[in-house]
Write a structure and sequence with these properties.
Chain A: One of its GO terms (molecular function) is ATP hydrolysis activity. The complex is a heterotrimer. By secondary structure, chain A is an alpha+beta fold. Chain A folds into two domains: 228 residues, 3-Layer(aba) Sandwich (Rossmann fold); 103 residues, OB fold (Dihydrolipoamide Acetyltransferase, E2P) (Beta Barrel). Chain A is built from eight helices and 20 strands. In chain A, a hairpin with a 2-residue loop joins strand 9 and strand 10. Chain B has one domain: MetI-like (MetI-like fold), CATH 1.10.3720.10. The chains are: A alpha+beta, B mainly alpha, C mainly alpha.
């Protein structure tokens, strides 16, 4: 079952929280809405859930227009940011809430609750109250509660934001496993964290200032970002101003062999790990070096482009040049792509 | 064209739902309209039953003018007293460690929901002719100062409550740093604590001003001859003398006084609801 | 210094009233002739009747105040902004106006058709309802402001009807606030004098009015004993109500 958003626009008073979003999520597909805060990604999710009403546009689920249908009749599973587990209900009663609202027979409720708690590994906590659970446990219960009603669509609103770094990595594994448990469910995953989006999503929709910037399969978006914003937000790419003339591309006056010029695209995009230090490259100066365990992050400035900082990730272990030293920076053409400057 | 058609569909249904939701507010609004607004409107009309004559007569009487001045005097004096005592007590509870500080703030909370006439009743024993300080205090109980003291006793917790909250939010480090830089306790209090808690001070003080303006129980129980306030006069005229139009005139003046003050306070506090409980 | 100020200001009145309740006379610095006869007087005849009247008024008025205060707070959650501001102002009106004036208004309004309530107990109950509803509304509205809408949203997404959301999510989550609103309004109602003294009929005399009548007749010791009864009953009521708080968590 697919979710379709057509030109969905949401206003809160005079501010526009979401502007003309078009998006389709197929059954069994995971689409991540990725963007900084205030980009409209949560608003889009709330519009699909029915928590906010679009001022324009239509929302369809499995082809049926649900724009005017209240949330209770949409049958969508939602996991909100702080989980919103009902504090006065035990874990099992939280999971049973939707089934009881649908007046399912008692035996079925019991069976389904047990099944769901088992799926998220929370069976032993059935009699606990939410406040007795850790953040990660609360999140599992919230997911079990949302999936108990067998929704065709699952919406996750930044589910890992409230967790600390270690737990976040663990929960990411859990979510990947969960994805395989519910192969037919369309999942919309809202996040501000590019690592989560890359790990979970089939396609990533990058959002910014209430609008959709780019949408593409995750690998494509990472390998060849269509815009400067996506390039830097997804994977923190370096963006270097280039001069494009005829079919030659120059950085600070130095021609780059093997990089194809494109009309109007005058920013060179390259990932920090793709840049290498070697001979015959661009002359630059090393400004800072941070050791990060498995790698070191170097910050350089190319001669002639003093205001542009270039980040380079080099594997740890090799010798590093002194800070302040002159270096030569190699930009492998296969790792370079050109994007329009636009506004960053 | 299609988009416009869709637009047209969305807008009215949106409105419909909103107005249906607002309908739920109707019963509680009607209730208060019938039980508060309608009576108050009748009070206003009743005050004009004799034309402007009743107004001229009541407002012109020395009795009324004395009561008005008394009410404001007592209210302002009591509020200033509450602010001084309340700030002192709240500062001590917040910043001077001593056993039972928690119990004291519990007592403060409990005081807020007790009837004010208890204080007045105890004054009869404390300062009355036969009481503890009776021989010393002389005729103290019959002066407006007795009312002021009783109101300070009763309303100080209303100042302390927001102050305790605000003082608890001042980081201790800030005070320690100030003290380590050589600021004495008074300097720390006046330069750091007071500016921090000013909003709470304003909120508590203005609430107290309103409540003392409206106070009735204490004045009723102390029953001093010299201390007739506006609410007291409403009671005397309405219940003892059965002069409804006269009582209504005073009630209207009192309403205007209180509502004006309340409105000024609410806007001065920047729309923040002064918590009244 | 601090202890003295605190003692004189806060505690002395209660100690004094308590001591007076149990003493036969008070002519020197300390009360004398310990006795329980005042307390017995305070718990018999008319005074006992006053106690039951006060209890009924406080419980009935408090209950109605809680129902309407909660209703108004919940309904103003979803209504349009100007309507909410209007309701807010309306529900704060009884606090801003002196209770004597509220009483006078009720007296003027309900001594004439269409509703003749003067002389019945209902005018007293209405007075208490009106005065307490401002506090219950304020308490519940403040608690609602602190609760996240996400709970109701999630409940709706799980298929719960608006009624189910109200009864199974919103109200249980508001329970602590509703209970404190109830105990506050019962406590205030037990001690209310201003409006009551304006409207009460002879057949429905509340405890504080009786206390005043006693002091007015010079029977201050019995008045003290009765005030003590009032305090004790109020404390018992508030503590009992507090038990209803249960486990519910307010966020």
């Amino acid at each position: 079952m697919t979710v379709q958003l057509e030109d969905v626009t949401v206003h809160f008073g005079r501010t526009c929280a979401l502007e003309g979003l078009n998006l389709t999520v197929a059954a069994g597909e995971t689409v991540a809405l990725l963007g900084p805060s205030g980009s409209g990604k949560s608003t889009a999710l709330k519009a699909v859930a029915g928590f906010v009403r679009p001022s324009r546009g239509r929302i369809r689920i499995a082809g049926v227009d649900v724009t005017d249908v209240p949330p209770a009749k949409r049958g969508i599973g939602v996991v909100v940011q702080q989980y919103a587990l009902f504090p006065h209900l035990r874990v099992a009663d939280n999971v049973a809430f939707g089934l009881r609202a649908a007046r399912r027979p008692k035996a079925e409720v019991t069976r389904r609750v047990a099944e769901m708690l088992d799926m998220v590994g929370m069976s032993t906590y059935a009699r606990r109250f939410p406040r007795e659970l850790s953040g990660g446990q609360q999140q599992r219960v919230a997911i079990a509660r949302a999936l108990a009603i067998r929704p065709p669509v699952l919406l996750l609103d930044d589910p890992l934001a409230a967790l600390d770094a270690q737990l976040r990595a663990d929960m990411l594994d859990e979510l990947q496993k969960l994805r395989r448990e519910v192969p037919d469910v369309a999942i919309v995953y809202v996040t501000h964290d590019q690592a989560e989006a890359l790990a979970l999503a089939d396609r990533i929709a990058v959002m910014r200032a209430a609008r959709l910037v780019d949408i593409a399969p995750s690998a494509d978006l990472y390998a060849a970002p269509p815009s400067a914003f996506t390039a830097s937000f997804l994977g923190g790419a370096n963006l270097l101003p280039v001069e494009v003339s005829a079919d030659e591309v120059r950085v600070a006056g130095h021609p780059l062999a093997g990089v194809r010029a494109k009309e109007g695209n005058n920013l060179l995009c390259i990932r920090p790990h793709a840049v290498r230090l070697g001979s015959g490259g661009l002359p630059a100066r090393l400004l800072a070096a941070q050791w990060r365990g498995a790698s070191s992050r170097l910050t350089c400035a190319i001669d002639g482009l003093p205001d542009v900082r270039v980040h380079i990730d080099v594997p740890a272990g090799g010798p590093l040049p002194e800070v302040g030293a002159q270096v030569s920076m190699v930009l492998p053409p296969e790792a370079c792509s050109l994007v329009p400057a636009g506004t960053r | 064209m299609a988009v416009e058609a869709l637009n047209f569909q969305v807008a009215p249904s949106n409105k419909g739902r909103q107005s249906k939701r607002s309908l739920w507010l109707l019963p509680p609004i009607l209730l208060l309209a019938a039980l508060v607004v309608y009576p108050l409107v009748l009070v206003a009309t009743e005050s004009f039953t004799g034309g402007l004559a009743t107004w001229r007569e009541v407002v012109g009487s020395t009795e009324f003018r004395n009561a008005l001045i008394r009410t404001i005097q007592i209210s302002v004096t009591s509020t200033i007293g509450c602010l001084i005592v309340g700030t002192f007590l709240a500062a001590v509870i917040s910043f001077v460690p001593f056993p039972g500080a928690r119990i004291v703030s519990g007592v403060v909370d409990a005081m807020l929901s007790l009837p004010s006439f208890l204080v007045a009743l105890s004054f009869t024993f404390l300062y009355g002719t036969a009481g503890v300080l009776g021989s010393l205090a002389g005729g103290f109980l019959t002066t407006p100062w007795a009312v002021v003291l009783a109101e300070i006793t009763f309303y100080t917790p209303f100042v302390m409550r927001p102050l305790l909250g605000a003082m608890a939010r001042i980081p201790r480090v800030q005070l320690d740093v100030a003290a380590s830089l050589g600021g004495g306790p008074w300097r720390v209090l006046s330069k750091i604590v007071l500016p921090e808690v000013k909003p709470a001070l304003v909120a508590g003080g203005s609430l107290t001003l309103l409540l003392t303006l409206n106070e009735f129980g204490i004045v009723l129980f102390l029953g001093a001859r010299d201390t007739t306030t506006l609410p007291m006069l409403v009671h005397t005229k309405g219940i003892v003398m059965f002069d409804y139009p006269g009582a209504c005139v005073i009630a209207v003046v009192q309403i205007l006084l209180s509502i004006t003050l309340y409105a000024v306070l609410r806007s001065a506090l920047g729309g923040r609801r002064a918590r009244l409980d | 210094m601090f202890a003295i100020v605190l003692a004189v200001l806060v505690l002395a009145p209660f100690v004094v009233v308590g001591a007076a309740a149990f003493s036969g006379s008070w002519n020197g610095v300390f009360p004398s002739d310990p006795t329980t006869s005042h307390l017995r007087d305070a718990l018999s005849g008319d005074e006992l009747a006053s106690l039951t009247v006060s209890l009924q008024t406080a419980l009935l008025g408090g209950l109605l105040a809680v129902v309407f205060g909660t209703w108004a707070a919940l309904a103003s959650r979803t209504a349009s902004a100007p309507l909410v501001r209007f309701t807010d102002a309306l529900y704060h009106l009884p606090i801003a106006v002196p209770s004597v004036v509220v009483g006078l208004g009720l007296l003027v309004a309900f001594s004439r058709p269409p509703l003749l309530l003067n002389g019945t107990k209902w005018i007293v109950v209405i007075a208490h309802l009106v005065l307490m509803v401002a506090f219950t509304y304020g308490t519940v509205a403040a608690a609602l402001q602190r609760t996240d809408d996400a709970y109701a949203d999630v409940a709706a997404s799980l298929g719960a009807s608006p009624a189910r959301v109200l009864w199974q999510v919103r109200l249980p989550m508001l329970r602590p606030a509703i209970v404190s609103a109830a105990s506050l309004s019962v406590a205030l109602s037990m001690g209310e004098v201003g409006a009551t003294i304006m409207v009460y009929p002879a057949s429905w005399r509340t405890l504080p009015v009786s206390v005043f009548a006693l002091t007015d007749r010079g029977q201050t010791f019995v008045a003290a004993a009765e005030s003590l009864v009032l305090l004790a009953v109020t404390v018992v009521l508030v503590v009992t109500l507090d038990r209803l708080r249960g486990r519910a968590v307010e966020r």
